[in-house]
Design a protein that fits this description.
Structural class: alpha/beta
Helix content: 25-40%
Distance between the termini: 32 Å
Order of helices and strands: HEHEEE
Number of strands: 4
Shape: globular
Strand order of the largest sheet: 3-2-1-4
Largest sheet: 4 strands, mixed
Length: 88
């Protein structure tokens, strides 16, 4: 499901932001780093959160280290935030 959301983010008419929680930085693997580097090259903001996550886990990706007590430290989540068109 997360890969589908990431691919959809690249196809939206108005570029969204992508936020992802990976539990531990070690779970942000090379293949994920490549995908998130591509996202960061095309989207306005891409962030990865996890215990021991470095400030820049991949080119253009902003990282945030979480405390092991943080509820997100036990989550694998991807959030894509995009504006919705206004209806008249």
């Amino acid at each position: 499901m997360s890969k589908t959301l990431e691919l959809m983010a690249l196809q939206t008419p108005v570029p969204p932001v992508v936020l992802a929680a990976f539990e531990q930085a070690r779970l942000f693997r090379l293949s994920t780093a490549r995908q998130f580097t591509e996202l960061a090259a095309r989207l306005p903001f891409v962030a990865a959160l996890g215990v021991d996550m470095p400030a820049c886990p991949a080119p253009g990706v902003r990282g945030t280290a979480l405390s092991v007590q943080d509820p997100l430290a036990s989550e694998w989540s991807v959030v894509v935030l995009a504006p919705t068109p206004r209806r008249s």
